[in-house]
């Protein structure tokens, strides 16, 4: 027969174990006694404006005209051909088993977001020009109106995506729910976002800098509402906090 202290230890261990099992991702907080701009100044691989992603086969570019739509472009490194599709508006690209996943998000009115799956970019519509990307220039001239060669796996209103990432060959997204005001890590199931884990309100921004170090390593630089760098490595999310600039 176990004594009362032994039973209390077992109960406490069970509670801690259940709590840990409740969160799929481990969130670690690190406080740094410096300004986030010091970290930004040291970056040598800031993404080229408009360039979302690159692998051995393609460069993936974007354009966005807000409420008038957006486009994702795949430029073949071998042939130079450019394939494109409607995507309102691309924010990041992930790859699982040679399939490309384009996360899109717009904050116009109630917010809208989606994810496109592209198995073979060469099956998409061909275009002949990638427009110069400038977030302050809005034009309908170049935006695609075709979804040829793509598959829409989620299309949601009232939700915006900050970024998406891959863990264990599954796609997860940092999302904001406009109706509830909650920020979450979500997974797409049956064409809908399903909450995996809630996150702090400060860990979301509509204008982050996303740096894809590898397929399972991503850095997300936030300056609003607070200066933070989120670093996603596998199932660990490191929250790097910085002092406010004065």
Q: From the helix content, strand content and strand pairing, which structural class follows?
A: mainly beta
Distance between the termini: 62 Å
Q: What are the low-pLDDT stretches, counting only 5+ consecutive residues below 50?
A: 6-21
Task: Estimate what percentage of residues fall within beta strands.
Answer: over 45%
| Strand arrangement across the biggest beta sheet | 1-18-17-16-15
Helix content: 10-25%
- Rounded average pLDDT: 87
| Count of runs of 4 or more consecutive helical residues | 2
Number of domains: 1
Biggest beta sheet summary: 5 strands, mixed
SSE pattern, N- to C-terminal: HEHEEEEEEEEEEEEEEEEE
Shape: globular
Structure explained in plain terms:
Helices cover 10% and strands 50% of the residues. With 246 residues, it is mainly β. The protein has one domain (25-243). The chain is globular, with a radius of gyration of 20 Å. Mean pLDDT is 87; it is low at 6-21.
Task: List descriptors.
246 residues, mainly beta, five-stranded mixed β-sheet, 2 helices, 50% strand
Secondary structure blueprint with pairings:
Elements: H1 4-22, E1 26-35, H2 36-41, E2 51-54, E3 58-64, E4 70-76, E5 82-86, E6 90-96, E7 99-106, E8 112-118, E9 125-127, E10 151-157, E11 159-167, E12 170-177, E13 183-189, E14 192-199, E15 209-214, E16 217-222, E17 228-233, E18 236-243
Parallel strand pairs: 1-18
Antiparallel strand pairs: 2-3, 3-4, 4-5, 5-9, 6-7, 7-8, 8-10, 11-12, 12-13, 13-14, 15-16, 16-17, 17-18
